[in-house]
Amino acid sequence: MTQETQRKPLLTGRNLVKRYGRVTALDHCDFELYPGEILAVIGDNGAGKSTLIKALSGAVIPDEGEVTLDGKTVHFQSPNDAREAGIETVYQTLAMSPALSITDNMFMGRELRKPGFRGKWLRQLDRPAMEKFARDKLNDLGLMTIQNINQAVETLSGGQRQGVAVARAAAFGSKVIILDEPTAALGVKESRRVLELILDVRSRGIPIILISHNMPHVFELADRIHVHRLGQRLCVIDPKNHSMSDAVAYMTGAKVPETELEPA
Amino acid sequence: MPSDTDNYETVVRERRAEKVAEFEEHHRGFMGNVQHALHVTPSLVPLIVLVASLILFGVLLGSRFFSPFALTLILQQVQIVGIVAAAQSLVILTAGIDLSVGAIAVMSSVVMGQFSFRYGIPPAVAVVCGLAFGTAVGALNGWLVARMKLPPFIVTLGMWQIVLAANFLYSANETIRSQDIAAEAPILQAMGAKFEVAGAVFTVGVVFMVCLVMVLAYALKHTAWGRHVYAVGDDPEAAELSGVNVKMTLISVYALAGLICAFAGWALIGRIGSVSPTSGQLLNIESITAVVIGGISLFGGRGSILGTFFGALIVGVFTLGLRLAGADAQWTFLLIGVLIIAAVAVDQWIRKVSA
Ligand SMILES: Nc1ncnc2c1ncn2[C@@H]1O[C@H](COP(=O)(O)OP(=O)(O)OP(=O)(O)O)[C@@H](O)[C@H]1O
Ligand SMILES: [Mg+2]
């Protein structure tokens, strides 16, 4: 495994600090994501998992610390900066505009314009192209039951919404895909689809950060598990060397891990 | 210890408020279908009310009301409010409100007039200065809302007072007379120019209002900017996370609203002939009324600019219809009040589709 540990991480966080008033959501937290891996992030509610990935995706600007991508320090000022760098995120809140259509939501901020005069001068959107793309991506996810690609997102069920958000990230992520509890509202069948999609994305060589409270899912997919506790990285474990109850015990503080970083 | 894991799982699962995926289409009753149709096309309600009120007054008043002349008179009477309400719609779609619209319109008209008459600037250039003034004040509103994160109500309440006071101070409360404008700077009255088609009388201002509504309807529906305006009004955090430049969108909306109000100021000179710093005092309330009756949600993100146009026309139809019927003008206000409350009730009902 030595050659693995010598690999350079693709995305890192060093000493990240984020305070919300008197709450310290991130307390000098480190983070590494290696090329081509699925890294699970687990931790109790309020441990700071979402804040951590937001600091990596430009949604939160950390008070201290630095983020690097491909070895270069980056200073994302907005989620758009991170998206342009190829980092695509499904936020826990899903970040969709309820009154707008599925297509509008999938292309929010990167709309396609018609070719020629109508696109260039009238700035007209290329609806047919966007609709076709959106339909294809939802079909990939097995969300065929969505009848109308132009229905408002608020008329979808919680699970369908989550499916659309995941499809959006998978379609556009080119460097890193971050999923904050992507299966939380999904049924068994739909969760399975998302898990397959995650493996599919990895087989394309794109690494994934997966936040989940679902231990069976985490242990099934993850190459490494980052255990988050009280705003810090408690340890990184290899799922092959630990049981689920160990992992739960670490994150709740019932048990202390022997080593902080396990080579994976 | 698998039981531990299981307990942990249940705890986590119980915390979830969201439902597990549910894919079958459930049946809607008749009211459900109506609700759904309104949800998809929010301008339907004001359109129905508009057509109904046209029929009602047509039956009551006959050809006195149903003549090309009377019907186009309505258009002339609502043109200023219609233009300002278009600006107001944009702002309200972003979940804001602009109380300074009337003041911007009037002050812009004063700038156009005073620049021509006091400084001898060519009137066409003075018009451009007036339009630039309106845009600048709007952009300042937008900057305060987007960058300084101040509530739109407060920002525009303050701006209303500032611009109105500046308007009186700058103009020294002086009206520029219609005859002087006609003689020396006729372009200031250009929006009032009339032309007749088979008894129907149109003004340039009316044509401008209709074109403006069409252009904005197109921009809101078929351009990325328009989709961003809705997204920002719907849920600004979600819009930001999904890649919309929320601040720039807000600033562009307020600046555009300022520009449109300045056009309304120009149209105002055409309508009344003179440049009067005391005109247009009711434009705030009247524009908000048109927007609300037009079915745009004050919570932002829902409604269409066509609805606002219909809303403005409804007010015009009631005003003229009741006047021709010889009713006390107070009846107009009373009915408008009823319509406002009804419109908001319908909006709340439509929103339940999502629940
Ligand atoms: N916008 C905010 N304003 C104030 N406090 C916040 C904000 N976001 C997060 N926090 C606080 O930061 C801490 C970490 O929150 P975070 O959402 O990162 O937790 P989490 O690990 O994702 O939890 P969960 O499993 O419930 O999603 C919490 O104590 C939370 O109350
Ligand atoms: Mg979270």
TrEMBL record, chain A:
<dbReference type="Pfam" id="PF00005">
    <property type="entry name" value="ABC_tran"/>
</dbReference>
<keyword id="KW-0067">ATP-binding</keyword>
<protein>
    <submittedName>
        <fullName>Mannose ABC transporter ATP-binding protein /fructose ABC transporter ATP-binding protein /ribose ABC transporter ATP-binding protein</fullName>
    </submittedName>
</protein>
<dbReference type="InterPro" id="IPR050107">
    <property type="entry name" value="ABC_carbohydrate_import_ATPase"/>
</dbReference>
<feature type="domain" description="ABC transporter">
    <location>
        <begin position="11"/>
        <end position="255"/>
    </location>
</feature>
<dbReference type="GO" id="GO:0005524">
    <property type="term" value="F:ATP binding"/>
</dbReference>
<keyword id="KW-0547">Nucleotide-binding</keyword>
<dbReference type="GO" id="GO:0016887">
    <property type="term" value="F:ATP hydrolysis activity"/>
</dbReference>
<dbReference type="InterPro" id="IPR003593">
    <property type="entry name" value="AAA+_ATPase"/>
</dbReference>
<dbReference type="InterPro" id="IPR027417">
    <property type="entry name" value="P-loop_NTPase"/>
</dbReference>
<dbReference type="InterPro" id="IPR003439">
    <property type="entry name" value="ABC_transporter-like_ATP-bd"/>
</dbReference>
Automatic annotation (TrEMBL), chain B:
<feature type="transmembrane region" description="Helical">
    <location>
        <begin position="99"/>
        <end position="117"/>
    </location>
</feature>
<feature type="transmembrane region" description="Helical">
    <location>
        <begin position="124"/>
        <end position="144"/>
    </location>
</feature>
<feature type="transmembrane region" description="Helical">
    <location>
        <begin position="331"/>
        <end position="350"/>
    </location>
</feature>
<feature type="transmembrane region" description="Helical">
    <location>
        <begin position="251"/>
        <end position="270"/>
    </location>
</feature>
<dbReference type="Pfam" id="PF02653">
    <property type="entry name" value="BPD_transp_2"/>
</dbReference>
<feature type="transmembrane region" description="Helical">
    <location>
        <begin position="305"/>
        <end position="324"/>
    </location>
</feature>
<keyword id="KW-1133">Transmembrane helix</keyword>
<feature type="transmembrane region" description="Helical">
    <location>
        <begin position="150"/>
        <end position="170"/>
    </location>
</feature>
<feature type="transmembrane region" description="Helical">
    <location>
        <begin position="282"/>
        <end position="299"/>
    </location>
</feature>
<dbReference type="GO" id="GO:0022857">
    <property type="term" value="F:transmembrane transporter activity"/>
</dbReference>
<protein>
    <submittedName>
        <fullName>Mannose ABC transporter membrane protein /fructose ABC transporter membrane protein /ribose ABC transporter membrane protein</fullName>
    </submittedName>
</protein>
<feature type="transmembrane region" description="Helical">
    <location>
        <begin position="44"/>
        <end position="62"/>
    </location>
</feature>
<feature type="transmembrane region" description="Helical">
    <location>
        <begin position="69"/>
        <end position="93"/>
    </location>
</feature>
<dbReference type="GO" id="GO:0005886">
    <property type="term" value="C:plasma membrane"/>
</dbReference>
<keyword id="KW-0472">Membrane</keyword>
<keyword id="KW-0812">Transmembrane</keyword>
<dbReference type="InterPro" id="IPR001851">
    <property type="entry name" value="ABC_transp_permease"/>
</dbReference>
<keyword id="KW-1003">Cell membrane</keyword>
<feature type="transmembrane region" description="Helical">
    <location>
        <begin position="197"/>
        <end position="220"/>
    </location>
</feature>
